[in-house]
Amino acid sequence: MSKAEINPVAAPATSAAQQGDNIAHALAGAGGGLLSMTLTYPLVTLSTRAQVESKRAQSSTYDAARRIVQREGLSGLFSGLESALFGISVTNFVYYYWYEWTRAFFERAAIRSSRASKNLTTIESMIAGAIAGSATVLITNPIWVVNTRMTARSQSSPDEATLPGPNNNTISHSTTKKPSSSTLSTLLTLLRTEGPTALFAGVLPALILVINPILQYTIFEQLKNMLEKRRGGRR
Description:
Blueprint: H1 3-57, H2 61-72, H3 81-112, H4 122-151, H5 183-194, H6 203-208, H7 211-234
Helix pairs in contact: 1-2, 1-3, 3-4, 4-5, 4-7
């Protein structure tokens, strides 16, 4: 049987296998993001809000954190978690999928051109990172805008005006917990008051910051290539 008769069947199988690898990498990235976000979200929320509140009340970060827990309970530390989990899972899935897809494209091109090594060059690594990063920013920016609004919602609460003043002079305050806004209600309010364009606030700076994963994964790929060459040379 000639190669011409084999290739039409083999090519789709290889493509299907590569697609499976891309999705597997994407799911692994999404799963890792979900776990890390769940474990660290209360600390991130507490740190961010405590810093803002401590500046307004002119008190320590610890005191501000204690007041936040007293006022809203532990559940207040998980405000916006659902949108954050959705956001990080989509972010990681999109990034790893497109990165693996682009990497596989360059590897196939290297094989077709009979290049000595199918490993990504520096330029190819940078292009792969740029494509994956740009796709991630454009797709997930609306999710993070909603999450940011949910996390910061209590900063505009009346409770914020009832903090201890300078020299420990107490300003009257209420300990009533503010009802949590759902992701959907926050999204609808944002669309109603500011319009759809608000979902893409900050997208241009975010696209510029894509240089961070570009450098990260370019260095990663080149270091991996160096290690593989060294291991190959010892065999």
